[in-house]
Predict the structure.
Amino acid sequence: MHALLFFFIFLRMFIFIFQTQREPPVVPLRINYSNMDDLKRDAQKMPQSWSMAQPTETSLHLGLYEEKGCKMNISINAEDFDNLYAEVKVFSLPVPHLRTNLQEKRVHKLSEELQGMFICAGILDEDLQPYAELPDGSSFYKHVSYTIEEGKAFHRSTIRSAACLLLQTTDTLCTKCQSVRSLLEKKKIAQENRVASTSLYDPLKGFTVDNMKSVLKRERQEKKMKEKELEKFRSEMKKSNIEVDRELNDSP
């Protein structure tokens, strides 16, 4: 009897607890901006080193300027506030991994985070520059950037991975460019070993990549000149009504 009474009490408690359990309320979607005026007001809260270009009805452009010029840009297309994203660019190159949804992070917060980041310098080693000129698909490219120092414009050439991160939290070469540097170093070592292993009488002994490129360029120029001279000779022979045997002339 007591057991049956205990069972009914337990059953009522279970039913009561089950009935009082509710699903958690739906968290409303946070909206940071609903119009361009909201966006412009928030952009004015950015650090002083950031500047805002004259906005249009559907776009906003922000730039971080230092002594040597513009360090990075934020471009915002505000045609659709339900899909409002900030596109970050360095040297006019997009930084895909920093594309930001501005309905989740305010633009002045994004500018503060970007200001504390570092630009990947790329591969500046002078001894590796010649090896970046050899065909290697699209794994890297030569990037020329321009800066202004003491009123004078300067350019700097560097090698970057095609997937260079451009902006990161550490002041080091990004992991993508580190891989390219390792590749170029291997090319350099292979070239040095090949030159060192040639015999004393090997005609290619001591030839560097630059030497080979110069020789090939000169040979192509000479070949073009000879072809022009031969064509000119054939033309003169035709004018003199002398038939030229092309097969004989083309033979080595």
User: Anything to note?
Assistant: The two ends are 119 Å apart (CA to CA). The helical segments are 2-20, 36-43, 107-115, 175-197, 209-239, 246-250. The chain is about 40% helix and 20% strand. The CA atoms of residues 37 and 57 lie 10 Å apart.
